[in-house]
Task: inverse folding
């Protein structure tokens, strides 16, 4: 495992969204001494299987799983992410939207969400929502007792297996 490496893992079925997503990734500031990779999985049978496939190909310690239509505006995203994981080694995952427990039927929106950052409050722009609220109030998962929805979530290691 490469301890000073980030890997963005994206399942994609739309080249236009992917191109825009990658545009934002290419403008991120990579912390000194760290490397950044990008793995894309095209037309995966499911997001979970696509993420699994790419996770097994990556030697990066820090993996960022994200939808093709997520655009990271914070240029210091990687340094901010690194600081969170280094400050508390108990953190197993950070995500935008999470759940205390999986719903009985496995459908994410049938369960009460934690810190829903998917939509801004009325009157607030999406850009301000992302920069002023979502990063400071992210859903942080200590250990693996909670679940994160897949818009974007980050781990300091490989967290699941087939």
Result:
């Amino acid at each position: 495992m490469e301890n000073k490496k980030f890997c963005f893992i994206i399942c994609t079925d739309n080249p236009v969204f992917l191109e825009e997503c990658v545009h934002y990734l290419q403008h991120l500031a990579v912390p000194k001494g760290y490397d950044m990779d990008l793995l894309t999985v095209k037309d995966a049978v499911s997001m979970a299987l696509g993420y699994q496939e790419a996770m097994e190909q990556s030697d990066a310690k820090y993996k960022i799983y994200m939808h093709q239509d997520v655009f990271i505006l914070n240029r210091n995203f990687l340094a901010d992410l690194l600081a969170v994981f280094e400050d508390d080694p108990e953190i197993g995952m950070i995500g935008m939207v999470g759940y205390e427990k999986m719903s009985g039927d496995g459908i994410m929106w049938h369960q009460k969400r934690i810190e829903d950052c998917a939509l801004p409050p009325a009157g607030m722009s999406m850009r301000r929502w992302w920069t002023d609220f979502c990063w400071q109030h992210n859903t942080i998962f200590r250990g693996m007792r909670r679940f994160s929805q897949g818009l974007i979530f980050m781990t300091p290691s490989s967290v699941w297996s087939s």
The chain has four helices and eight strands. The mean pLDDT is 75. The two ends are 19 Å apart (CA to CA).
